[in-house]
Design brief:
With 276 residues, this protein is α/β, with parallel strands linked by helices. The chain is built from nine helices and ten strands. It has two domains: 205 residues, 3-Layer(aba) Sandwich (Rossmann fold), CATH 3.40.50.1580; 62 residues, no CATH class. It is globular and about 65 Å long.
Length: 276
């Protein structure tokens, strides 16, 4: 299941029409769905985005979920209409940072459709609309809250933040109209569609892996919930890089503690990713 988080109805409407999403009854939010996609209109701001993303996640709590946050944003000199994939998200207020996975962008999945040349940039989440672009950041108001919430429910490999440049140093956000916002979203629907289908494919790959981790892993060592999550992510990534990857009990028994085992898997992933 793909969950799409959008701040404003005007941003959401082109997506709702494109994917033929239908409004469902809900007392708190406007939620639109089809068989594989659910979209929620969160309202503006990182807190609203986090709360609404968590709420939507709980509605589909029994499914493996992928996530997209899409919306307009500002940058000092990027051309209006440019679509950007976040490779780093910073909270301007707390200075905390989060690093999305770029699994879709690393050519690790040759059967996927996304253009590997899509522009990646750092996104900074601010508390109010900003037109003083001091850094080479994409400025938004939701990404940090969205990502923090979504990462509690799924693998970071299945979370993407897309921003469409709506204002820059030559075009102030105060000049934006609903019609211009809709046109900016419309212009990038093909990329959104490709990314959406790719994330849905990956989420379906992950589903059986959650049930296939060998039981002996948990008989020898006690893994915390965080460590289990980390282990599942590594298992998925390695399986994605090498379809013949498996963990054999005789190899596993060589490790004296769980830390050494997890360190080994991380090292193996980095070597496999580089083709070593």
């Amino acid at each position: 299941m793909l969950l799409i988080s959008v701040a404003l109805k005007v941003e959401a409407q082109p997506i709702i029409d494109f994917f033929k999403l239908k409004l469902i009854k809900d007392k708190r939010y406007n939620i639109y769905v089809n068989d594989e996609i659910a979209l929620i209109v969160t309202g503006v701001g990182k807190i609203n985005s986090a709360i609404a993303t968590s709420y939507l996640s709980m509605l589909f709590k029994d499914q493996i979920k992928a996530y997209i946050n899409i919306g307009i944003a500002g940058h000092k000199d990027l051309e209006l209409g440019t679509i950007v994939l976040a490779d780093k998200i910073e909270d301007a207020n707390t200075k905390k940072t989060q690093f999305p996975s770029l699994l879709l962008n690393l050519d690790l999945n040759p059967d996927l459709n996304l253009d590997s040349d899509i522009l990646t940039k750092s996104v900074i989440t601010v508390d109010k609309s900003e037109d003083n672009y001091k850094k080479d950041f994409v400025y938004d108001m939701e990404a940090f809250g969205f990502f923090k919430a979504a990462s509690k429910f799924t693998y970071i490999d299945l979370i993407c933040t897309l921003k469409i440049i709506s204002d820059n140093a030559l075009s102030n956000f105060k000049e934006l109209t609903e019609d211009r916002v809709k046109k900016l979203i419309d212009k990038n629907l093909d990329i959104l569609q490709k990314l959406s289908f790719d994330l849905i494919k990956l989420s379906k790959k992950i589903a059986p892996i959650n049930n296939e981790l060998p039981a002996f892993l948990f008989e020898k060592f006690h893994f915390s919930e965080y460590e289990k999550h980390d282990l599942k992510k590594l298992y998925f990534k390695l399986s994605n890089l090498d379809e013949n990857f498996s963990i054999k009990i005789e190899d596993f028994n060589k490790f004296e503690n769980k830390k050494a085992f997890l360190t080994y898997l991380k090292s193996l992933y980095e070597k496999t990713k580089l083709g070593l």
